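README: folding subset

This subset contains proteins for which both the sequence and a predicted structure token string are available. Records are stored as plain text. Below is the entry for TRNT1 nucleotidyltransferase (404 residues), shown exactly as it appears on disk.
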Amino acid sequence: MRLQSPQFQALFTPGLRSVAEMFEKKNYELRIAGGAVRDLLSGMTPQDIDFATTATPGEMKEMFTSAGVRLINNKGEKHGTITARLHEQNFEITTLRIDVVTDGRHAEVEFTTDWEKDAERRDLTINSMFLGLDGMLYDFFNGYEDLKNKKIRFVGKATERIQEDFLRILRYFRFYGRIAEQPGVHESSTLQAIKENAKGLAGISGERIWVELKKILLGNHVNHLVQLMYELDIAQYIGLPLDRDLDEFARVTKNVQNLCPKPMTVLTSLFKGKDDITNLDLRLKISKEEKNLGLFLMKHRQELTKAMGPEPLKPYQDFIMDSREANTNSKICELLKYQGEDHLLQDLQQWTVPSFPVSGHDLRKMGMSSGKEIGAALQQLRDEWKKSGYHMDKEELLSCLKKL
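--- output ---
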């Protein structure tokens, strides 16, 4: 097939046209690769575009340098990737490769001009396609058919692909949550290959696992996929607690649908105690902000709830007003998502945190001089202000002070 969609046509910026002309002049083949092809075939505009070529890194460097094109970020060169900058746009172009040696984490590569050999070393069929700049699709493993049928399959034998890089187990789950329409539609041979190789995840760095896990937590079918991780003995190798609360997880994943939660908001529902978050941090090296959010949600998920009556949001507002931390508001928003309080979340997001209208200076003008007396009076007024729902103004509060 030949693709000519508006999303595809929009890729042809002055920069890409210049790059295409250079490669054509030298008779090097250049095609769009991987995820960008998948997105274009799905009618989406890709966020990142990777290119593949028959030119070696040395040939690309010579071609770009002689044309006066700036090259940036030479870290990828040993893996065959050259990044050129034209017309304020970066182009990441990688020489076709085959894996010579793999250890489940890294691969030693050899360059090739065989497009099928390069496709063969990729993880999933939907990520193994190429798209020519004329719109021609090159699909060696029925990736387009799988994409249309919302099917996630490894290229070739699942066991071989997984053993090349054990992180592909989590990539399988991530793309299942992104592409598949229904939970539970897996090939039994794929699940068997995952289970047999789950232990390989123990050797993958926590940072790489966390990147994939966060995307899984924000995708579709998350409840099904996390339950499956436990069934396939994956959880223990990626920092998830063995003593988990899958009922709470099921409840919370339902609560947060369409509320754009943070990954930690979803994940905390699995945890029963602080040790679970400590162990997760030890394995995955989560950020301080993520760890603090998890501890906050665990501490307040049951005790901080809406009030009965006409002001259900008030306990949350009081908590924010009493807090001395800068990001309490965003943590409370995540708590409301966790609890499934979407209406209260909307109300809180529209609420502007009010400023207490009385200062020590106001009380000194009333004749108070003792710091202790002023402090006590301010606290009394703050309590009255809170009772009023933060509506009383300065005059009302000061007249209230005279009566106290």
